[in-house]
Amino acid sequence: MTKITPFLWFDTQADEAANFYTGLFNASNVKSVSHYTDEGQEINGMPANSVLTVNFQLAGQPFTALNGGPHFSFNPSISFFVICETEQEGDNLWSKLSEGGEILFPLKKYDWSEKYGWLNDRYGVSWQISLGRIEDVGQKITPSLLFVNEMLGKGEEAIRHYTSVFSPSVIDGILKYGPGEEGTAGTIKHAQFALSGSKFMVMDGPGKHDFGFSEAVSFVVHCKSADEVDYYWEKLGEAGDPQAQQCGWLKDKFGVSWQVVPTELFEMLDDEDPEKVKRVTKVMLQMKKLDLVKLREVYHYQS
């Protein structure tokens, strides 16, 4: 199982968006769909049996989409960098993703790419499309973090922090702005690194922006044990926002959102027994850090 997977928070369009995205990329499909129980209606206002999450993969990259209501909005602080190895592929993908969306950088030749563009799609999810070679990165779709406003200049600190938390990790390269360039000298123009086998990119974004990191895009850390849950919760939550901690979610000191989740929980929530799922869901929703021992007790409870 991939250690870290992107998680997308939609209002009510998770299943629609997942079906749209899987129609755009090769080696893509919907893996599973979960539904709200009665607790979902009581706590989140979502109708029982409506779609809760959709697990899908795009070009082999796992994603999860959630119908969570209108609490968070996508923005370019976290985008998905897509490498297209032919111009035709890039043009086709751009045409479909841009329909009903917003163009941030037109698809054309730039100093850093023979063909590149940046857009927000019809759902607000942000994509960077670039002509290049997949072997230069190691994966087709890569999350890209943009550090802006009060976080401007903290990109390198974030890279050092994340690569100290996850193992194995590697910093592939850091390219910085020089004197006289658009960005502040010494901040990151572009960087690439890997956490437990998953590639990430980082940029420091000069200028003023009306957005910052949002819970609309978070990263799920799949944990094999209660000890792993404790470790990642402590390391990623260090100096973060304690008010943002709920149901395994946390916001780190840079404002990036993570979910620290034991893999057993997914098996519990996929159980065919609705009473087991209901018990686990009810207890989970009352937790901040997920307590695997307690979740097991509730799951295996015999009346």
Can you walk me through this structure?
The structure is a single chain. The protein has 303 residues and is an alpha+beta fold. The model has no long low-confidence stretch (mean pLDDT 94). It has 2 domains: 4-71 and 214-299, 2,3-Dihydroxybiphenyl 1,2-Dioxygenase, domain 1 (Roll); 78-204, Signal recognition particle alu RNA binding heterodimer, srp9/1 (2-Layer Sandwich). Helix 7 runs antiparallel to helix 8. A hairpin with a 5-residue loop joins strand 14 (249-251) and strand 15. It has helices at residues 14-22, 38-44, 87-98, 155-165, 226-237, 263-269, 274-284, 292-299; strands spanning 4-10, 29-35, 51-58, 61-67, 78-84, 102-110, 113-120, 126-131, 141-147, 169-176, 188-195, 198-204, 217-223, 249-251, 257-262. The strands form 2 sheets. The protein has an 8-stranded mixed sheet with strand order 6-7-8-5-9-12-11-10, covered by helices on one side.
Task: Write a brief caption for the model.
25% of the residues lie in helices and 35% in strands. It has 303 residues and is α+β, with helices and mostly antiparallel strands.
